[in-house]
Amino acid sequence: MIHEVDDVLKKLLSGGALDGSGIDVSFEVPTRDWAARRNAPVVNVFLYDIREDTGRRQRGYTPVRDEREIVVRRRRPPRWFRLSYLVTAWTKTPQDEHRLLSAALATLLPHELLPAHDLPGALGRLGLSVPVGVTGVQSESRSLAEIWSALGGELKPSLDLAVTVPFPAYPEYDAGPPVTEGAVVRVRSVDGSPSEPDERAHRPHQIAAARAAHEQAARGRREKP
């Protein structure tokens, strides 16, 4: 799922305000060595934290239906995880970096919710929309200073991008076949003698026919003068 989110973000950031600019979008770790190797402007999207959104966790099972709306399988609800990205711009001057960050922000803000039909692969097949947020709220256990210190670099202006995505929960279970016949009632004698039981099968079409005949007879009685 994570690589599919990367594909969505790269397509999103490469379009919008950056469309046609030729600016590359990189997911590499922005270390000092990486910064020294680059030779062109780039927008870096660094995944620095993966954390479950426990507020979205659900219990039980959800039905999976076929084209006839018959339940064929049952599966557990997906688990939601928040993927936190550090978005930075890398050019030769701070002014150009600020312009790139502004373009990235203008591109991301209108996309607060990614619809399922725009998502690739297994992520799209779940049929769930994915929320996207650009926020200044940091992870519970990591601050910006700690992140840049761990990367061995100096603090840079950045956008904190959070994408909350569903992950399928396994296993799935096959559902039993649908009920196509009514109940069967067997009646025996009171003394429990081993005589053959009187078996009466109450099937849906028989019940419907009996109900229709009863309603027709009732209407006939009401219409008599």
Q: Would you spell out the secondary-structure blueprint of this structure?
A:
Blueprint: H1 2-14, E1 24-26, H2 32-37, E2 42-52, E3 62-65, E4 71-90, H3 94-108, E5 113-114, H4 121-125, E6 130-135, H5 144-151, E7 159-174, E8 184-187, E9 198-201, H6 204-223
Parallel strand pairs: 1-2
Antiparallel strand pairs: 2-4, 3-4, 4-7, 5-6, 6-7, 8-9
Domain Pvc16 N-terminal: 4-181
Biased composition (Basic and acidic residues): 212-225
Region (Disordered): 188-225
Describe this structure in words.
This protein folds into 2 domains: 2-174, no CATH class; 184-223. Helix content is 30%, strand content 31%. The strands form 2 sheets. Strands 1, 2, 3, 4, 5, 6 and 7 form a 7-stranded mixed sheet that branches. Strands 8-9 form a two-stranded antiparallel sheet. It has 6 helices and 9 strands, in the order H-E-H-E-E-E-H-E-H-E-H-E-E-E-H. It is elongated. It has 225 residues and is of the alpha+beta class.
Q: In a few lines, what is going on in this structure?
A:
With 225 residues, this protein is α+β, with helices and mostly antiparallel strands. The chain contains 6 helices and 9 strands.
Helix content: 25-40%
The biggest beta sheet reads: 7 strands, mixed
How many helices in DSSP terms?
6
Count the E strands. 9
- Domain count: the total is 2
Straight-line distance between termini = 74 Å
**How would you spell out the order of helices and strands?**
HEHEEEHEHEHEEEH
* Overall pLDDT level: 78
> What is the general shape?
elongated
Helix/strand-derived category reads alpha+beta
Strand content: 25-35%
Radius of gyration: 31 Å
Poorly predicted sequence stretches spanning 5 or more consecutive residues: 197-202
